[in-house]
Design goal:
Number of helices: 6
Order of helices and strands: EEHHHHHH
Largest sheet: 2 strands, antiparallel
Strand content: 5-15%
Distance between the termini: 78 Å
Structural class: mainly alpha
Number of strands: 2
Strand order of the largest sheet: 1-2
Helix content: 55-70%
Length: 174
């Protein structure tokens, strides 16, 4: 687990600046224009860092909600997820070496996979609740008719007089 400066704290759980920096660096390495020293690149990186932090906060809130609802992930599913993270053809030694280089442990990976699976499970349950409440076309039409003003855009301008340039001697059909 990371230590050091805290970028955010969500219900007592910390998101560390070092982890955030690693995520932003990964994005930067995939986009050469961000590596320049221009004001635009610097502003883009600040914006990206804010978006990454927002995403991490949202993810942590979802994990916390899944745990609050006592959702559970099977160990076999975590094991399968770790294999996917490791990737095909990567040896245990190479994988462990890459974890050390990233400042992570196998338990960090297992926790990450578990959290992701919890979020998927929570999302699946929340969306299942929505699909149970099927909306009929008649209900859609009724809601539209009751709130028509919400679906219309007023004209931006009103033409009072339109002038057209025509060549001398042109007929009305031209």
């Amino acid at each position: 687990a990371a230590a050091g400066a805290v970028a955010a704290q969500v219900n007592g759980e910390k998101i560390y600046s070092d982890d955030l920096d690693r995520m932003v660096a990964a994005i930067e390495s995939n986009e050469p224009s961000l590596s320049s020293d221009t004001p635009e690149a610097k502003a883009a990186l600040v914006s990206i860092r804010g978006k990454v932090l927002d995403d991490q906060i949202e993810h942590l809130l979802l994990v916390q909600e899944a745990k609050r609802r006592k959702l559970v992930v099977k160990t076999s599913d975590i094991d399968e997820g770790v294999l996917k993270v490791r990737g095909p053809g990567v040896s245990d030694d190479d994988f462990k070496k890459s974890l050390v280089e990233a400042g992570k442990t196998m338990q960090d990976v297992r926790d990450m996979v578990s959290d992701e699976l919890l979020v998927r499970q929570l999302t699946s349950r929340l969306t299942a609740d929505l699909t149970l409440a099927a909306i009929t076309p008649a209900e859609v039409l009724k809601a539209y008719n009751e709130h028509k003003s919400s679906f219309t855009v007023p004209p931006l301008a009103k033409a009072h007089h339109i002038l057209l340039l025509v060549a001398r001697g042109s007929s009305a059909a031209d």
